[in-house]
Write a structure and sequence with these properties.
The structure is a single chain. By secondary structure, this protein is α/β, with parallel strands linked by helices. It contains 11 helices and 12 strands. The chain folds into 3 domains: 2-11 and 195-291, 4-hydroxy-3-methylbut-2-enyl diphosphate reductase, catalytic domain (Cobalt-precorrin-4 Transmethylase, domain 1, 3-Layer(aba) Sandwich); 13-96 and 303-308, Rossmann fold; 98-192, 3-Layer(aba) Sandwich (Cobalt-precorrin-4 Transmethylase, domain 1), CATH 3.40.1010.20. The longest helix has 17 residues, at 13-29.
Length: 310
């Protein structure tokens, strides 16, 4: 058996920035610092930071007044910001700048009197944060069927934005359905979806078409939207695809009658997990590992001024 290693894979610039924000906050302020929800959707990252004194909370009421409190990379609603300010919390915002870009576009459209359609999964932290940043009417949907059932105030005054971690193929279908039903709807181009999501999906497509893999292993946590989309992409291509948290979840029977294995990692999965998976696959009979050529990612996002000044 041999392995084809997707490129790019793993951490994106937004995740790098979010984790560095937490680490810098620990250095500057000392433990504990509080993070609202998981800083990124990866169990190993969260457990490592928790062991170093980071307290992850589900609601701001769990945070002592005046404490350093970090908003996760997925973003939060205006109401959460107000609540944090009222409690006198020292806020550090780790929202990914590409998510902030979606917030700003939706707010601008709403201010112009447009009804906003948010293409995304209800309940996902990014979607709930974006929904809570839009002052006017907002419709959350993720399927063509939901587009067909959508009831709006004025079909000629609509716009859409998208969750950054959705499958581009799925998003394209939904956008096409929106444009068919509402020809005047305005929205960003598909390229405005997160560059890292697109690059990682393109790499999986190359694995399934050019590299002709028999099995795809995606490293990422079960609550990671972009990791789930990578596994779905493999399955849709007719390749047996498995989403795993780490090497311990690999089952030898997956590799029976397998010649070539594709390996990738979601945007919140550390490279150390990838190397552990490779090591485990070698133990199970892999003799050769080759990394694919891929899109070079050079994007770096600045830290908040409150941390970069130190």
């Amino acid at each position: 058996m041999d392995v084809r290693l997707a490129n790019p894979r793993g951490f994106c610039a937004g995740v790098d920035r979010a984790i560095e924000i937490v680490e810098r906050a620990l250095e500057i302020h000392g433990a504990p610092v509080y993070v609202l929800h998981e800083i990124v959707h990866n169990r190993h990252v969260v457990e490592d930071l928790a062991a170093r004194g980071v307290m992850f909370v589900d609601e701001l009421g769990q945070v002592p007044q005046g404490s350093v409190t970090i908003f996760s990379a997925h973003g939060v609603s205006d109401e959460v910001v107000r609540t944090a300010e009222e409690r006198g919390l020292r806020i550090v915002d780790a929202t990914c700048p590409l998510v902030t870009k979606v917030h700003l576009r939706a707010q601008s459209d709403s201010a112009k009197g447009l009804e906003v359609v948010l293409i995304g999964h209800p309940g996902h932290p990014e979607v709930e944060g974006t929904r809570g940043r839009i002052p006017g009417p907002v419709h959350v949907l993720s399927t063509v069927g939901e587009v067909e059932a959508l009831v709006v105030r004025d079909p000629e005054r609509l716009s859409y934005v998208t969750q950054t971690t959705l499958s581009i193929d799925d998003t394209r279908e939904v956008i096409q359905a929106l444009v068919r039903r509402f020809p005047h709807i305005r929205g960003p181009e598909l390229k405005d979806i997160c560059y890292a999501t697109q690059n990682r999906q393109n790499a999986v497509k190359r694995l399934t078409t050019e590299e002709r893999i028999d099995v795809l292993i995606v490293i990422g946590s079960k609550n990671s939207s972009n990791s789930n989309r990578l596994a779905e992409l493999g399955t849709r291509s007719g390749v047996r695809s498995y989403l795993i948290d780490d090497a311990r979840e690999i089952r030898p029977e997956w590799l029976v009658t397998t010649n070539r294995i594709g390996v990738t990692a979601g945007a919140s999965a550390p490279e150390t997990l990838v190397q552990q998976v490779i090591e485990r696959l070698r133990e199970l009979g892999v003799s050769h590992v080759r990394e694919m050529e891929g899109e070079l990612e050079t994007t770096v996002f600045k830290l908040p001024e409150s941390l970069s000044a130190h």
